[in-house]
Amino acid sequence: MIPPAGTSLSSLGQRLRVVLGAEGVVDDLRRYYGVGLPPDAVPFTGSRFEHLAGGGDRPDVADRVTAEDLVAVQTLSVTVPAPVALDILEGRLGARLSGLLQAISRDIDMADADASVLADGSPADQAWHLLCAQHRVNWVIAGKLLARKRPRLLPVYDRVVRCAVGRPPSFWLALHAALREDDAALHRRLLELRQAAGLPETVSALRVCDVAVWMNHRAVDHACP
Questions:
Q1: CA nearest 171: which of 189, 194, 137, 147?
Q2: Rounded to two decimals, what is the model's pTM?
Q3: Are 152 and 108 in contact (CB under 8 A)?
Q4: Residue 47 DSSP one-character state
Q5: I need a surface site. Which of 10, 70, 84, 178 has the fewest CB within 10 A?
Q6: Non-local CB neighbours of 31 within 8 Å, separated by 6+ positions
Q7: How far apart are CA 63 and CA 56, in angstroms?
Q8: CA angle 150-151-154, nearest 5°?
Q9: Mean pLDDT of the chain
Q10: What is the pLDDT of residue 154?
Q11: Which helix or strand (DSSP H or E) is residue 222 part of?
């Protein structure tokens, strides 16, 4: 369990403490990633999101979106429209994204990054807006594709997670603040959960958070808009 907070917490921080302190959170993580499941059991397809083809942030592909990245986001139940996918792989859109990715660190956790890395006008923010400007690419698809490329820095944020934790003006900045509150207690909790569930270090703290929230909210069967 997370110890009592020494300082006042944000609304997002309070909600995450409840989820990450829940009794079944470790079992949820194991079930999602297939840890300790019977041989005939099938883990969630999203368990391959960060690991498919060695990951989207491995050094040789970290600054460009690949076909494997486009398949990886499909494991999270979204699809990049074919015309946009082709432009990313072969056209000007891909070149523009590559230029922005080169300016986004791949080896730092959100909790350790400066808020300016996530703020309006940052390369990460520009990349998100560039993707959202494409036909039929919404905020969910854009966020998941960027999370594939920078899993330690940029979170997955979809309608289920939004339903669970609310709609702050900037989810990135709100999560960044929550992870740093109370001497980074939430970030440390995420690392503890990763270890307790037997997950590899290639599963980022942000991804542990996303899966824990998603599994918890899904289990309650909320009707999320």
A1: 147
A2: 0.93
A3: yes
A4: G
A5: 10
A6: 37, 43, 44, 215
A7: 9
A8: 70
A9: 94
A10: 98
A11: none
